[in-house]
């Protein structure tokens, strides 16, 4: 990841808005398809079809060594889950889907978590907290604020509900590259990137990754899937956002 934050022009942001709108429609279709009995591989196949139909390319297939259009995680899965045919959703599973597209020279990236079938005790409030934390983080992405203000907004929202932000993974800048500067943690880490002042023209993939338990993680044998060490459920919410004069605008909607 470059240390320099790439500032986008109005024309650049418009291209990303167009791609982001297409991506949001794809995300909604994937959400609707998540049901008990459906395999993660079916979600990925649907994403392939929808991305091609939208005239886009799958961003994740442009990542070295990754061969899928989506990352799909279930329950304690946090990120980078390979959408395997062996993963079949059961009633009450918490399913997280991460998907990105490349359109007119720019990437957009989004994630969501939903329940397959009927929700279990506390799952809906767990997901509502994650969505709210993302909303608070996006609102903090304003000219003159610091990157750390986004992190603080996310962390404080999660901690009020006694939930733990994931500490080993971060949100990121986005544009011509899928992963650009700056790093955007879900917690206040006092890193160099967090001291950066947010400027007009920044485009950010603001990502909330959190768990009911401890934030310690384990990498599975496939060398991609990351899950919580204590097997507590994890949630994932992400939008691509542009910082403009009037404040942040969500491009993936």
UniProtKB/TrEMBL annotation:
Domain Peptidase M24: 14-214
Positions contributing to a divalent metal cation 1 binding: 98, 109, 238
Cofactor(s) the record lists: Co(2+); Zn(2+); Mn(2+); Fe(2+)
UniProt keywords, alphabetically: Aminopeptidase, Hydrolase, Metal-binding, Protease
UniProt keyword annotation of Metal-binding present: yes
Highest taxon above the source species: Bacteria
EC number(s) per entry: 3.4.11.18
Catalyzed reactions per annotation: Release of N-terminal amino acids, preferentially methionine, from peptides and arylamides
Cofactor binding note of this UniProt entry: Binds 2 divalent metal cations per subunit. Has a high-affinity and a low affinity metal-binding site. The true nature of the physiological cofactor is under debate. The enzyme is active with cobalt, zinc, manganese or divalent iron ions. Most likely, methionine aminopeptidases function as mononuclear Fe(2+)-metalloproteases under physiological conditions, and the catalytically relevant metal-binding site has been assigned to the histidine-containing high-affinity site.
Binding positions for substrate per the UniProt entry: 80, 179
GO molecular function, one term: initiator methionyl aminopeptidase activity
Entry's Gene Ontology BP terms: proteolysis
UniProt family annotation: Belongs to the peptidase M24A family. Methionine aminopeptidase type 1 subfamily.
Annotated NCBIfam families: met_pdase_I
Function description: Removes the N-terminal methionine from nascent proteins. The N-terminal methionine is often cleaved when the second residue in the primary sequence is small and uncharged (Met-Ala-, Cys, Gly, Pro, Ser, Thr, or Val). Requires deformylation of the N(alpha)-formylated initiator methionine before it can be hydrolyzed.
Subunit structure and binding partners: Monomer.
Protein name: Methionine aminopeptidase
Organism: Candidatus Woesebacteria bacterium RIFCSPHIGHO2_12_FULL_41_24
Organism classification: Bacteria, Candidatus Woeseibacteriota
């Amino acid at each position: 990841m470059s240390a320099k934050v790439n500032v986008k022009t109005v024309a650049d942001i418009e291209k990303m808005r167009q791609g982001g709108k297409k991506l949001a429609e794809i995300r909604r279709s994937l959400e609707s398809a998540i049901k008990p009995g459906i395999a993660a591989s079916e979600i990925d196949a649907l994403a392939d079809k929808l991305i091609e139909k939208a005239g886009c390319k799958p961003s994740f297939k442009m990542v070295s060594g990754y061969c899928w259009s989506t990352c799909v995680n279930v329950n304690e899965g946090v990120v980078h889950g390979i959408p395997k045919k062996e993963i079949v959703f059961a009633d009450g599973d918490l399913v997280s889907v991460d998907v990105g597209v490349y359109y007119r020279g720019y990437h957009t990236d989004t994630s969501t978590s939903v329940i397959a079938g009927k929700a279990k005790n506390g799952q809906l409030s767990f997901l509502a907290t994650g969505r709210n934390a993302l909303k608070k983080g996006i609102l903090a992405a304003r000219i003159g604020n610091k990157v750390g203000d986004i992190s603080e907004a996310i962390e404080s929202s999660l901690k009020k509900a006694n939930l733990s932000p994931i500490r080993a993974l971060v949100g990121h800048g986005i544009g011509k590259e899928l992963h650009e500067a700056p790093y955007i943690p879900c917690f206040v880490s006092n890193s160099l990137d967090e001291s950066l002042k947010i400027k007009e023209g920044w485009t950010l993939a603001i990502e909330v990754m959190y768990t009911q338990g401890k934030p310690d993680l384990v990498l599975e044998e496939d060398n991609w899937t990351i899950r919580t060490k204590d097997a507590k459920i994890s949630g994932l919410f992400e939008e691509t956002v542009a910082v403009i004069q009037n404040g942040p605008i969500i491009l993936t909607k």
